[in-house]
Write a structure and sequence with these properties.
12 helices, alpha/beta, 327 residues, 12% strand, two-stranded parallel sheet, seven-stranded parallel sheet, 41% helix
């Protein structure tokens, strides 16, 4: 575990480095006022502080903090933190994301044990593990994901595990390593519709991500698959419906849809704030298309209520299996 002085010196170095150097030259984008339906509980309760203390004591990074998640107050009050492994520096430069961009540091071989210990202390029944993109690594970090999953299984055998992975683009054999670790849920977010990839997610390839999700099911049909998109980036309704069809063709079980929120003036502007009734309408359509579960609301995020959603996924799969047997 890193000492207090080590963490301090690390923070001091980070202060000197711009968080998004690739965006520094871009003109400022307008920041729209949030509508009344986007209101969240401010963090700061005793339980929130207890969660923060455990995260800090173990020298860990959470996507809750790094991505500026609006639900951090609610989730941390319940001791639900989503751990972001392999550091806090991403090799991609997505236009929507607040995670720091640059040259990552070497992998920490002790991180899996620290993540497992923190999950045990938090008493998590369902743990969500995500990461930065690590294009600098031969396997994209798949082996590190596998090590983290194994460490959690050893420390907390009854805890179910959800991974939210990068796309492992051009990393031959990486996906197979991550799937062989047997997480209970494999999540990989599409983030947006294909027409927006060049401006929003330039380092990724839409159909590669679709194929990755499909391949997970081919490798292990028992693993639940999950993906999510954001609305408010300039997409059209017919494009969102096509994404649903593409995901169903890849046999994806669970779809999340949330509102894009602009982190800074240097990030992609919010094209519009989508009202809650539109999210509800999308959820109805997605369920009709065959998803086992859909979570769609302005504040929906990949790991929000992940434990409760996993229980629903299991129940719906069992219900379908029972219906087939009785039919």
């Amino acid at each position: 575990m890193a000492s207090g002085s080590d963490l301090l010196s690390c923070e001091q170095v980070m202060v000197k480095q711009p968080r998004h150097p690739e965006k520094a030259h871009r003109p400022d984008q307008p920041v729209a006022r949030k509508p009344a339906w986007i209101r969240v509980k401010a963090p700061g309760s005793a339980q929130w502080a207890a969660t923060q203390k455990i995260v800090r004591e173990h020298g860990l990074v959470t996507v809750c903090e790094e991505a500026g998640c609006p639900n951090i107050g609610e989730c941390w009050e319940k001791k639900h933190a989503t751990f972001m492994i392999m550091g806090d520096i991403c090799t991609r430069a997505c236009a929507f994301c607040n995670v720091r961009t640059g040259l990552p540091r070497a992998l920490d071989s002790f991180e899996p044990a620290r993540v497992a210990e923190a999950i045990q202390k938090l008493g998590l029944a369902h743990a969500v593990i995500t990461s930065v993109d690590r294009d600098d690594l031969d396997d994209g970090g798949a082996g590190h994901f596998a090590s983290v999953v194994a460490a959690i299984r050893a420390a907390s055998p009854n805890t179910t595990i959800e991974v939210l992975t990068p796309d492992f683009l051009r990393k031959q054999g990486a996906l197979e390593v991550a799937v062989a670790a047997k997480p209970d849920v494999f999540n990989h977010n599409l983030e947006t519709v294909p027409s927006k990839y060049l401006e929003v997610r330039p380092g990724a390839r839409y159909f590669h991500s679709i194929r990755l999700l499909q391949r997970v099911k081919e490798l292990d049909p028992e693993i639940f698959t999950k993906s999510g998109i954001m609305l408010g980036l300039g997409e059209e309704r017919h494009e969102v419906l096509q994404v649903m069809d593409d995901l169903r063709s890849a046999d994806v079980d669970f779809l999340t849809i949330g509102q894009y929120l602009q982190p800074t003036r240097k990030h992609h502007a919010v094209a519009r704030f989508v009202p809650p009734d539109e999210f509800s309408a999308y959820a109805e359509v997605a369920l009709a298309k065959g998803f086992l579960l859909v979570s769609a609301s302005p504040l929906t995020r990949s790991s929000h209520h992940a434990g409760e959603d996993f229980a629903k996924l299991k129940a719906r799969r069992m219900g379908l299996a029972g219906a087939r047997l009785s039919g």
